[in-house]
Amino acid sequence: RTAPTARRFLQTQATPPTRVPEFAFAFDIDGVLVRSSDALPRAHKSLSYLQSERIPFIFLTNGGGKHEQERVDDLSKKLDIPIDTSMFVQSHTPFADMGEYKNKTVMVVGGDEDRCRVVAEKYGFKTVVTPGDILVAYPEVWPFSQQLLPYYSSFTRPLPAPINPISPSTSLKIDAIFVYNDPRDWGLDTQIIKDVLLSHNGILGTLSRKNGDATLPNKGYQQDGQPPLYFSNPDLLWAAKYHLPRLGQGGFREALEGVWSALTGGEKNGVTLQKIVMGKPHKLTYEFAEKRLIAHRGQLLKQFDGKLGHLKRVYMVGDNPESDILGGNSYESPHGTDWVSVLVQTGVYVEGTTPAHAPRQIVGDVYDAVSWAVAQER
Ligand code: G3P
Ligand code: MG
Predict the structure, then answer these.
(1) Residue 180 and residue 289: Cα distance in Å, rounded?
(2) How far are the Cα atoms of 258, 263, 277 from residue 272, in angstroms, in the given order?
(3) Residue whose C-alpha is closest to residue 55's, from 296, 260, 347, 365
(4) 17 preceded by cis ω (within 30°)?
(5) What rounded mean pLDDT belongs to the chain?
(6) Can you point out the beta strands (E) in the chain?
(7) Which residue, 108, 98, 68, 67, is CA-closest to 86?
(8) DSSP for 266-317, written as a single string
(9) pLDDT digit string (tens) for 273-316?
């Protein structure tokens, strides 16, 4: 464990820099720059210093639920810093590249459902349904959210026209399930995901002959044409406004896994829930973020017709050892860029405890992180 650094102060250079340095930053958002809607005290000061020194940075968050442009506008206002979407990677941003599903029927789960649907449609997904759409179409599908029907009816849409109308309730075929953000109605979302994963061929209202028939080998689970299940954020906990960490999308996934293993026998039956989990600390997300950072740095260089130079180091500043620090420590850049993890004490991580994954440096807040990193580079 490294002791927190002494308070350092960032000095802007007397003459404005004419080159873009060969190091950069990736900032986690919740617990580093904001706590829910409140900016943290020295966030603005840290980022405006970096911009005055032409030191590139991006935002890398497991948060989501709105389109990148909307989140960038919100964050820019909150931090009083000019930013654009080229600097912003959130949990579901990589979903935008999944062209193979754009002309299929996908189910988007989580967040303010209709907002996430609009994000998916802006990414180019043509046919998007939500658990709320299904509940309003078939209220009996989940008896315990009836009191929420007026809420759901205010934004849900009719289901796509029956594709193979075996009967109205078995016409909807789901080709992929994407959990975009923290689910608000865990009961409904768990029920609908379970129905689709145990269906025949992703057709809602059916029960797969393999999965439903105990006489058949249980290896049939998720091997009867059921759709893939993508999670965008593994966070079990995150730092919201409340003084103790809150359950995140990882909490929902663990609850779903519990229902899945109760239904299928789970691990002891050799039936683990097949899923793809993205977001920090997973490699896919860091690869995606590094590409964005290199492109953004290239934009900055163009403004200074500076020589490209190699991005030698990225300081990954985060509050969660399980996502920011583990990800920063384990990511191996194909460009040989060294990712240096820096843990702050303004979010999930509690000062004085031993973090589950040891960062390169532990500091007080984001300003200390920037001061320490800049001092390493001087
Ligand atoms: O839902 C947001 C939460 O999981 C954490 O977000 O910004 O700390 O990666 P962030
Ligand atoms: Mg965080």
Answers:
(1) 18
(2) 11, 11, 14
(3) 296
(4) no
(5) 91
(6) 23-27, 34-35, 38-39, 57-60, 88-89, 105-109, 127-129, 176-179, 229-231, 237-238, 246-247, 276-277, 313-318, 338-343, 361-362
(7) 68
(8) GGGGT-PPP-EE-STTSHHHHHHHHHHHHHHHHHHHHHTT-------EEEEE
(9) 999 999 999 999 999 999 999 999 988 888 776 666 789 999 99
Q: Is 322 in the pocket of ligand 1 (CB under 6 A)?
A: no
- The CA 374 to ligand 2 mean position distance, Å, reads 22
Q: Which two tokens stand for residue 217?
A: 């080998």
Q: How many residues does the chain have?
A: 378
Using the structure block, give the residue that is written with the tokens 């200390």: 368
With a 6 A CB cut-off, is 61 part of the ligand 1 pocket? yes
* Residue the block writes with tokens 């080229």: 86
| 281 Cα to the center of ligand 1, angstroms | 12
Nearest Cα to 195, choosing from 144, 255, 131, 148?
Answer: 131
Q: Which amino acid is at 214?
A: A
- For the stretch 223-267, pLDDT in tens is 788 999 999 999 999 999 999 999 999 999 999 999 999 998 888
Give the Cα separation of 65 and 91 in Å (integer). 9
Among 157, 162, 168, CA closest to 129: 157
Hey, what are 343's tokens? 């843990």
* Ligand 1 neighbourhood includes 68 CB (under 6 angstroms): no
3-state helix, strand, coil in the chain (%, to 5): 40, 15, 45
The closest-lying atom of ligand 1 relative to the alpha carbon of residue 279 is 9
Residue pair 238/187 in contact by the 8 Å Cβ criterion: no
Is the distance from the beta carbon of residue 248 to the nearest atom of ligand 1 less than 6 Å? yes
What is the pTM (predicted TM-score) of this model? 0.90
